[in-house]
Structures are given as C-alpha cells and as structure tokens.
Amino acid sequence: MTPRIKICGLRDAKTAAAAARLGADAIGLVFYPPSPRNVDAVVARAICGALPPFVTSVGLFVDADPALVRAVLDQVPLDLLQFHGDEAPDYCRAFGRPYMKAVRVKHDVNLLEYAARYADARGLLVDAFVDGVPGGTGAAFDWRLLPPGLPLPLVLSGGLDPDNVAAAVAQVRPWAVDVSSGVEARRGVKDLARIAAFIQAVRAASIE
Description:
This protein has 208 residues and is an alpha/beta fold. The protein has one domain: Alpha-Beta Barrel (TIM Barrel). 31% of the residues lie in helices and 22% in strands. The chain contains 7 helices and 10 strands. The chain has helices spanning 13-22, 41-50, 66-75, 89-92, 111-117, 165-172, 192-206, and strands spanning 4-8, 26-30, 56-61, 80-83, 99-105, 123-128, 154-156, 176-179, 184-186, 189-190. The strands form 2 sheets. It has an 8-stranded parallel barrel, surrounded by 4 helices. The protein starts with a strand and ends with a helix. Its EC number is 5.3.1.24. This is N-(5'-phosphoribosyl)anthranilate isomerase.
C-alpha cells in the first residue's frame, strides 16, 4: 500500500494546487496564530477553491475557542479537522465534521489508550514531543515507541523530509505521512522541488 501524503502548512492557492498536481492527497491549513504557517479564512477559502477533486482539505487547530472553529467552518469548506492540542473527545466531535487527533509521542504516553479515547476519530496523527510547541518543529521521534495493533489509521508526522521518509515508511508502514517543515525552503515557505522529492520517495518506498 502506498501511504497517503499530506502536505501541511500551505499558505497560498498556487502552491497548494501545485502540490496536488505533484501527488499530494491532502493539504493542511493551519489556524493557529502563533504559527508562521497560520492562514486566515479568506486565504484558506481560496486555497480550498484551487484544489482538484479527491484532494482533502484539512484544518488544523490547537486548543482553539469553539467559536473560532465554527467561524472558520462557516467560511471554509474543510473536509477534515485536525486537533493538535489537548482537546477532549467531546470537543473534537462537537463540530459535526470528521476529525483526526494528534498526539505528541513520548515514553509515558500510552498510544493504545489514547486511540481508545478518540475511537471515533478518522485517524491518529503521531508527532514528536517538543516542550511548549504543539507541532511543526521539524523534530523526529523514536518510531520504535509506536505499538503494533493501533485501532485507528496511523498518520506519521514529526521530522519527516525527502531524505528519511522512505525509511519511515519501510519501518512504520503508516496509513499516511504528514510533512510541513521538511519540505520548506525557509520557515513557513514551501519548496515545490522538496515536495516533489518527498512524494517520489514515499512512492518509491512503497514498491520496494
């Protein structure tokens, strides 16, 4: 199986459309003001409008006020919500949209219990734990911490780039991979050549 590929942190319609043409299955839009990848609803709506059929638009939120999430949903046709903070299960399901829950992996996190808490999520996104930073750090984690038999589709994130994603796919065999800083020319600015190389590496690893 070829893992699905999500390119996260897109900030303009042209780059998002180009990423889709290169083979991205999903585009991530960040609604978290402290992030250099944050977008407003007007830009996000334009990005969604530029996507071809069957490319999923994902909205990322971090412990957002519910009113903010609803305001974004009123303006942006998001297909999937991604909650990247400490959101409770009831919060995640309160918006009537499919959602994916992120967890920052460290030794004392029981991923099987975590997945059971969010049993109605479409997937569990695993990222590196960096104190005080919810994601997008470019840091990797020890993939050996991932237990077998997770009951949710696994989305692997955290420090992936064109050079290491093939090894990640071979070792973890995730349902999908998610990349942001690993395909950037500089912080918050995507590099299409790196996106193309990342996608090619995922596909090559899948047929080895």
